[in-house]
Specification:
The protein is mostly helical. Helices cover 59% and strands 0% of the residues.
């Protein structure tokens, strides 16, 4: 696969997150019945919703994904500090949407992200939300080295979510993304990476769980959507019309769908309306530079392991 094809997939992944987020942001916290009564079947990025979004405005899913991506670009071998600095800058901008686990971790943070996440887990009694899964894709986009990809996937997760279920979901998700970047089909990549895990399934029956913010429920819905829709718009539209945590489910499903179908497979009416598209474009170009090694040499031995 040549550089132009890889860039199309990397751009597709980033735009996929943003489009799924912006489309699903309209219906977040609504039920399927409420969505049907108000919109019929939502297919367009119109904004509004509980957050009063502008058309094409994104939420925490996309903004934290960009924080992870830009932190990796700044320091590919040791990105935690750079990612964390961007998390704090974003948090201090008073975003409209921020998850409870992430908010608590931001408040606990002093000088150690893993300690702050641990304290949040103690305070809340759990930290198994989907807030690290929604932002983990840049690790797959940036690192050709599989060991680095897995390590950074886990570390960015543990910065706010002190829960092995979140780590596992991020790694499985990014392993699927890695296969898609190599040109494998979704129908092979997903079963190939979920076999023998909690997410192994025939994918023929809808998950028997709500589309909420629990990472296990979210990931089950994402995988089901991707295995049972055709074309990029089918995936993000399905997520948006689920309701519940629809922006995050849309962002996570949209990221993998965007890689699979590519940037050119995302309808232009979706791509062109995203308000942060210039930042997405710039970030995609930088991520491929990391992947190709033009931002400095990397090897898996340079990186430490997250505390367990």
């Amino acid at each position: 696969m040549n550089g132009e094809q890889i860039l199309d997939k990397i751009k597709g992944g980033l735009y996929g997150v943003a489009v799924g987020d912006a489309l699903g942001g309209t219906t977040e916290f609504m039920t399927r019945q409420e969505i049907k009564a108000r919109y019929g079947y939502l297919t367009e990025v119109i904004g509004g919703g509980v957050w009063g979004l502008e058309p094409g405005e994104v939420t925490d899913d996309t903004m934290m994904t960009l924080c992870v991506a830009e932190g990796i670009v700044e320091n590919p071998a040791q990105p935690v500090e750079a990612i964390g600095r961007r998390f704090l800058e974003w948090y201090r901008s008073r975003p409209k949407d921020i998850g409870n686990i992430i908010r608590h971790t931001m408040e606990h943070y002093r000088d150690n992200w893993f300690e702050a996440a641990f304290l949040t887990d103690l305070d809340l009694g759990q930290s198994g939300g989907n807030g690290s899964l929604m932002r983990c894709l840049p690790a797959a986009l940036a690192y050709a080295d599989s060991a680095l990809m897995e390590t950074v996937s886990r570390m960015q997760s543990r910065m706010t979510h002190y829960d092995e279920r979140c780590d596992e979901a991020c790694v499985i998700y990014n392993k699927i993304a890695r296969r898609l970047l190599a040109g494998e089909e979704l129908s092979r990549a997903i079963p190939g990476e979920t076999a023998g895990t909690a997410y192994s399934s025939s994918f023929t029956v809808a998950p028997d769980c709500p589309p909420d913010g629990y990472v296990v429920h979210t990931f089950h819905w994402v995988l089901y959507i991707l295995m049972n829709t055709e074309q990029f718009e089918g995936a993000v539209q399905y997520a948006a019309n689920l309701g519940g945590d629809s922006d995050t489910i849309g962002a996570i499903a949209g990221g993998l769908a965007g890689i699979h179908y590519g940037y050119r497979g995302i309808p232009s009416r979706y791509r062109d309306c995203i308000l942060v598209k210039e930042r997405l474009e710039r970030t995609a170009e930088l991520l491929i530079a990391v992947r190709e090694g033009t931002l400095g040499g990397l090897n898996s031995g340079e990186y430490g392991k997250p505390p367990m």
